[in-house]
Amino acid sequence: MYQKKEILTYFLVFIFRICSSTDTIGPNQSLKDGDILVSSGNAFALGFFSPGKSRNRYIGIWYNKVPEQTVVWVANRDNPINGTSGVFAIDPDGNLVLSDESRNLSVWSINVSSITLQKSSSAQLMETGNFVLFQDQSRSVIAWQSFDYPTNTILPNMKAGWNRRTGLNPFFRSWKSHDDPGTSEYVFKLELNGTPQFFLYKGSDRLWRTGPWNGLRLSGVPEMDPNFVFNIIYVENDDEVTITYVMKDPSIFSRMVLNESGTLERLTWQGPDRGWARFWDAPEDQCDNYAHCGEYSNCDLFNLSCQCLEGFVANSPNDWCGLDSGDGCRRNYALNCCNGDGFVKYKGQKLPDNFSLEEFEPSRL
Ligand SMILES: *[C@@H]1O[C@H](CO)[C@@H](O)[C@H](O)[C@H]1NC(C)=O
Ligand SMILES: *[C@@H]1O[C@H](CO)[C@@H](O)[C@H](O)[C@H]1NC(C)=O
Ligand SMILES: *[C@@H]1O[C@H](CO)[C@@H](O)[C@H](O)[C@H]1NC(C)=O
Ligand SMILES: *[C@@H]1O[C@H](CO)[C@@H](O)[C@H](O)[C@H]1NC(C)=O
Ligand SMILES: *[C@@H]1O[C@H](CO)[C@@H](O)[C@H](O)[C@H]1NC(C)=O
Ligand SMILES: *[C@@H]1O[C@H](CO)[C@@H](O)[C@H](O)[C@H]1NC(C)=O
Ligand SMILES: *[C@@H]1O[C@H](CO)[C@@H](O)[C@H](O)[C@H]1NC(C)=O
């Protein structure tokens, strides 16, 4: 049933081209430009594409049922192929390789040791949009999966965070532009210092943080309502610190993307007439910017200005009418437990940055 193709000289072996619609590339099979894999329920497709106005070719995964091409994962994002000579294949060692036939060059491959791989490995595009390389034909052991190496999109059922056993920390990096899926300087990732929380970076500058998990939601994302269209699963144990969202109705397409302007957006498909609708984005306003106000202060959402917490005064004397230098505040007099000092309740705040319950000492407040 397989069409015999010319020798792919790079491997010096016979590679058989995928025919008709399937979700799997088997041993010694390949995908040429124009061929696609389609997941079993038709939600996702994998194949070669050109983004926007670009004529470069990339291997990507997109929504198969959404008419405007919406790419959720890209393999060779920094190594495009010029022309239609790309071949995506499982090589005789069982490795997934993308090569440019016209240049006899491998432009992308997965980084799995040959010990993990077997000659009979096969790769399957799952209905979740995850592309999985199984170690062998029994499909019981996963050697590699695209969900562990995401690009700019968090899909339902994808675990975002740290695998403490393998050290794997999938992070999200935006495209350079609408026409170029190359890696840009905007990165969204989980950090484990203090209590785990996600940070948005531009290069090495922190732009925003989600705040740590508070039992119900990430404390800086009040919109994460448990009654929303998805359930959120947060796991923090010796094996992993991960967050996953699972659609209550799996037929709804919802994705979170770190876009080219460095904004995180939650988009949901509303059908061909209404397109992708934005339900949430972050950072939202200047109060949301990382460390906007400095220590012992908070940002007033009513007038977007900083103010000292009760009992504190501005560090910088110029800040008497609004602390916009970010210098923060200090105590206006030493704590005196017997002189009426006590606790003040603040509602609707993110938990303090780098706050660690394990190292919690009352004197630090
Ligand atoms: C793949 O191709 C190599 C080289 O032609 C061959 O030795 C091997 O048996 C093939 N593997 C499978 C599973 O067909
Ligand atoms: C792509 O290939 C075409 C034709 O071979 C060539 O004219 C063009 O300069 C190439 N573009 C790049 C960016 O290499
Ligand atoms: C690719 O490599 C093979 C063998 O190494 C060689 O015969 C062939 O000419 C090369 N093709 C190109 C386009 O460089
Ligand atoms: C593969 O992993 C090794 C070790 O982690 C690293 O040094 C190497 O650069 C990686 N190669 C690619 C192509 O990612
Ligand atoms: C990124 O998202 C923000 C907020 O949703 C939007 O205003 C902006 O236009 C988006 N940028 C791009 C390049 O799509
Ligand atoms: C902002 O509003 C708060 C009350 O919500 C007020 O205490 C504060 O003085 C205002 N700051 C400025 C700079 O107007
Ligand atoms: C966070 O706290 C840990 C110790 O709890 C410390 O080692 C680390 O440097 C702190 N990080 C930042 C960014 O303050």
TrEMBL record:
CDD domains: B_lectin. PROSITE patterns: BULB_LECTIN (PS50927). Gene3D superfamilies: Bulb-type lectin domain. Pfam families: B_lectin (PF01453), S_locus_glycop (PF00954). Residues 1-21 form the signal peptide. It comes from the Eukaryota. Residues 22-146 form the Bulb-type lectin domain. Keywords: Disulfide bond, Glycoprotein, Signal. This is G-type lectin S-receptor-like serine/threonine-protein kinase. It comes from Forsythia ovata.
